[in-house]
Amino acid sequence: MRIISRLCKTLTSIYPSCRFPNQDVPTPYPNMKYPPLGDDDIPFPPYGGRHIVTMMPGNGIGPELMAHVEDIMRHINAPIDFEKIIIQDGPTLQTDLNKAVMSVKRNGVALKGTIEPNFNLAEFRNPNVEIRNNLDLFVNITYWKSRIGIKSKYQNIDIVLIRQNTEGEYAMLEHMCKPGVVECLKVITKYNVEKLAHWAFQFATRYRRKKVSIVHKANIMKITDGLFLKTAKEVSKKYPHIKCNDLIIDNCSMQLIINPKKFDVILLPNLYGTVLNNVICGLSGGPGLTAGANYGDTYALFEPACRTLGKNLVGQNRANPLAMINATISLLFYLKKHWHAKMLKDAITKTLLIDKILTQDMGGHHTTIDMVNKIKENVSLLYN
């Protein structure tokens, strides 16, 4: 192995464009394991050189897109095996959720579509939130960047949005006090805000981001959002090399639409993060492009950034597969399968910029299968 490694390094020094599977391919920002997790941590030991990943197709267009992901992973010979968990609405829902959580705890990592909640249940619990809460995936991170060749309102967006993923209004603590009167509890804890803020500032440090903007509504919710703001600002003092400011959520929304270039890293509670996530999505090209990641101390879950069902696209071969494929690329980087991730990234770049294969939401006329087939074709063309 040492001889092979030396040979690869020698050939690479002579031919810089060459890369070999047993070499570390430089991980393109930001699709890799983030702080506070260490660079040398492997999430869970692979079995026979292969990783087992929990797959939750979800509802809507999720199952169709997951089938394409499986096809692509076979095509690039990624050492990944999927443990598929189907979560069905009905009497087996809680059992299915328990299976999903136990599967992620066993495998350490998951790829997920959006699961449709049943709002008619007497004791309504959103299954997507249940999974994140049970795994304590306290960080949700999305990276929004304008893409060359794809129409969007702005071409200068470069924003990282980091939000608390398990608290706030998403603690799902609401009840009916009496008929016609309901109450929702918003939970903010100093411990979890500190943990999230350190994570965000470590991320900014690691990836040389210059500024973190704390978003809140402390002018109205002085205790809950006040605690979030105060705690995050206290943490910011430990990172003097990173600029820090704060904005009220409504002002932040306006500023994003007027001039998104002024934002770098945005740190905010759960509900506000959901809203701004979709605002930036609309500014940067739509919901079919960007992936999101959820991290805890032990587990990671990858999914499209905009958690939409796309029910109007089911069975029509019109859905944009890139958000789910990009979530898969993030998964590969997380598992340190850098070579396979780079293959997909390069193939997607050629598909979009050179071949001009664009689905309808990107201003093109191509189908889902057109894009998937072209990505596979470009993998073979570039790396075989």
From TrEMBL:
The keyword Magnesium does not apply. It comes from the Eukaryota. Residues 52-375 form the Isopropylmalate dehydrogenase-like domain. Keywords: Tricarboxylic acid cycle. GO terms for biological process: isocitrate metabolic process; tricarboxylic acid cycle. InterPro entries: IsoPropMal-DH-like_dom (IPR024084). Pfam families: Iso_dh (PF00180). One of its GO terms (cellular component) is mitochondrion. Gene3D superfamilies: Isopropylmalate Dehydrogenase. Belongs to the isocitrate and isopropylmalate dehydrogenases family. This is Isocitrate/isopropylmalate dehydrogenase. It comes from Popillia japonica.
